[in-house]
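Good morning C.,

I know you're traveling, so I'll keep this short. The sequence:
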Amino acid sequence: MAPAIPHLYNGGAIPLSEVPVLDFAGFRQALISHVSGGERLSALFAAPAGSGMRLYAVLCSPLREQVELVSADAAGSYPSLTPDCPAAHWFEREIFEQWGILPEGHPWLKPIRFQPPRAGGREPQTVGVTGFFSMEGEEVHEVAVGPVHAGVIEPGHFRFQCHGETVYHLEISLGYQHRGIERALAGGPHRRTLCQVETIAGDSTVGHAAAYCAVMEALSGARAPAAAERLRAVAAELERMANHIGDLGALAGDVGFLPTLNYCGRIRGDVLNLTALVCGNRFGRGLLAPGGVAWGMDGARRDLLLARLDAVEKDLDSAVPLMFEAPSVLGRFERTGRLDAETARKIGLVGPAGRACGLSHDVRTRLPYSAYRFDILPTSTFHTGDCFARAYVRWLEVEQSIAFIRRQLSGPPPGENLLGQAGPPGPGLIAVALTEGWRGEICHVAATDEVGRFAFYKVVDPSFHNWQGLALALKGQQISDFPLCNKSFNLSYCGHDL
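The tokens, ready to paste straight into the viewer:
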């Protein structure tokens, strides 16, 4: 009889010894059956276990509102999961690159980061030097873009195979700024750990810091005060608003609609200033800490924040509907970069990009945590899966975030002393925490050794799930649609290149 798979609530911890170690056939069957049955593959990774290696999988069960953990010892190779579970595609490439464990039969096994190998990993390749998919035929041509781009932007390479103006294949090559964040986190926590977590993706500071704090609190048995959880959620929604508003303006700019572009650029700055009002930093750095928050909020600052939020809402109501009512904008947004719901589900698309395809996954509602356990937001979805849908879902989420912030701050102000005691992590534990960043699901997994240090620390940024979605959205599109499609996903290079 196969061992029972343990179920954890989001932000929970169990002894590492309680994670069942299945034979690979059982591990494979568990992943395929659970994912095909509606669960999500949130993480799949390898870590040292004794003298060998072990594969770990984190599965999210929305119906149970719980997380499941399962593992299997890994030899030098195994039958690839990807042909039967496409959501494993990127994860298996990462495992092979890091540890040299070969997924036999993987359809497109090549580096995702060009990182130096760990013990037993394969030989590293020169960054960016790899074999690309190619096509042959009359009037077939190839367009290479990046890794150096115009303006201040992170590096990434895009290789288009085109027939005339039509894109038949887009290949995305990343890893030009691999920073070794996960390696740096192993052996912690130390004084720099929280700062390192806050820089996983700079525009998702609060989302990643909240996941790290939840992991630390689970491992140490600490709990943040309720008022601190309210302030964490307020900061998360301000982060979501600022980025969504910036994206709406940028999408307007990509189709030459200047009124919304100009308005949203300024309004995004106003929202960032609201975060600075909370903690002194426009991106929320230094606000969250294990055990609560390092900054409180008195009544005067609460009232000022709400008054400024009213002004932001008024300006947004003048700027954003203009874009959605303009026929010239709709003509460019609608039917551009479409993904159907089944494809999005199979590849594991998350966040607004997934919800724009009709998927309802949102960690705040499916695996509620922090203040979202008591004030659950409606899930904003659309069904067309195109650039219009990805823009419209952002607008719906901005409206929901404004209402949520008002509700969280409508009662007594959070107060000034909101940092509880969080001791050191306990030994021999594993914790899983998921948050809903503005791009989608963020997953942190940490296990401690016999003295309570991180034996391994795994981070999955939402961009890791979604880059493949961008590539698929370009199939059959005009190459001139790429800037618009790319901005409608707006994925993070550094969040991917950990």
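Safe travels,
E.
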